Amino acid sequence: MTVYFIGAGPGAADLITVRGARTLAACRVCLYAGSLVPRELLAECPDGARLVDTAQLNLDEITAELVRAHEAGLDVARLHSGDPSVFSAVAEQMRRLDAAGVPYEVVPGVPAFAAAAAALKRELTVPTVGQTVILTRVAQRATAMPEGEDLATLGRSGALLVLHLAAGYVDRVVEELLPHYGAGCPAAVVALASRPDEVILRGTLADIAGQVKEAGIVRTAVIMVGRTLGASQFRDSHLYSADRERHVC
Fold first, then answer.
1. Residue-level pLDDT at 30
2. What is each CA distance from 191 to 39, 149, 152, 207, in whole angstroms?
3. What's the pLDDT at 1?
4. Average pLDDT, the chain
5. DSSP letter string over the chain?
6. What are phi and psi of 166, to 5 degrees?
């Protein structure tokens, strides 16, 4: 039997992929992060499925549930918010399953930064303005950042920065990025992207921290900083240019 790590998407239940929903509907056991995954998604599980909220479980307990289901001959859905490839804590679970000889597959989902960009109605890569997006976070007490990945270093690139898990540290974000981006650089925060209670804040590095505090946002938010957020005067992409040579097959 197989464990399926499924990206549940950023919050809206209908943003799970078709493959993700079909896989979920075929699994007799589902482990989900109760504080992040919409409860409506559990309706996709088959009748009588074992549903396990992992919010209060540690890694050993989660692994034991996955291995137990596998040994019982049951496929398991492990629902993660967003996409499993980014800030999902999937790597350590897969490492445990490798050691236990339990097979698994990964079903991608819609990441939070994509939902945030959609809410802002912005393309994050704009011709001649910015073609690089950096996904990162800030150092916290529990998990330090690797050497060379601090905001001061990343900020030197001038690329669009997308910060996860950083809303509670917005003052530090602004302080470390100001020398590289300037007070007038566009910034935005999207909390609870794609959900009914979604909150969208637009501003600059000069005022975004104040907006975040006034709105009471401390978690489940994405911070974006970069020139492409405010770009309006830029050259059209070559992709659809009338000057581009096109061959008719």
1. 97
2. 19, 24, 24, 17
3. 78
4. 92
5. --EEEEE-BSS-GGGS-HHHHHHHHT-SEEEE-TTTS-GGGGGGSPTT-EEEE-TT--HHHHHHHHHHHHHTT--EEEEESB-TTSSSSHHHHHHHHHHHT--EEEE----HHHHHHHHHT--S-BTTTB--EEEE----SSSPPPTT-SHHHHHTT-PEEEEES-GGGHHHHHHHHHHHH-TTSEEEEEESTTSTT-EEEEEETTTHHHHHHHHT--SSEEEEESGGGG--S-PPPGGG-TTS-----
6. -130, 0
**Which pLDDT tens digit goes with each residue over 109-157?**
999 999 999 999 999 999 889 999 999 998 876 678 888 999 999 999 9
Q: Residues 6 or more apart from 193 whose CB is under 8 A from it?
A: 10, 11, 112, 115, 116, 118, 119, 222
CA distance 220 to 223: 10
Rounded to whole angstroms, the Cα distance separating 175 from 232 reads: 27
Query: CA-CA distance, 162 to 177, in Å (whole number)?
Result: 12
**What is this structure's pTM?**
0.90
CA distance 208 to 239: 34
pLDDT in tens, 35-59: 888 889 999 999 999 999 999 999 9
CA 57 to each of CA 65, 176, 215, 230, 235: distance values in angstroms, whole numbers, following the listed order: 10, 35, 31, 42, 51
Q: pLDDT under 50 in the chain at which residues?
A: none
What integer pLDDT is reported at residue 245 of this predicted model? 67
